[in-house]
Here is the input.
Amino acid sequence: MSGFEQVSEASRAAWQRLADEARDALRMAGLPAFKFGESDGSAVGAEIEIDLGDDAAGGVFVAWRPDGQLSQLAPESVRNGQLGHPSIRQAGVVSKIMRDAIVSILNSAGFAAGESGDDMRPLSLRVVSGPSHI
Here is the structure.
């Protein structure tokens, strides 16, 4: 990808620490949580991703990954033109509710987190800082 700039090593290390802290805080709250790439793709729970881009879309993000049955059925229904299939609404509702719950959990643990504000991650949240950074 031409022109893609990554953040500095210092920023990368800081975001890695922030992602680890967020994962640990969510696990302490009883939620399954994992960083992107730590699972075989079938894991359920809070998936933490680090976007290393040196732009407005870079940072630490968390998205809820429901059970494979729901997470596969909804996009399959869209591909098949079944836009009214209940799985589509259910996947969106579950992801939004869990995003809001995760924001509340992280905020209560001293993190600065909120909706991602990224059109490419509409049901994700952005973690801006952790308790050790406030």
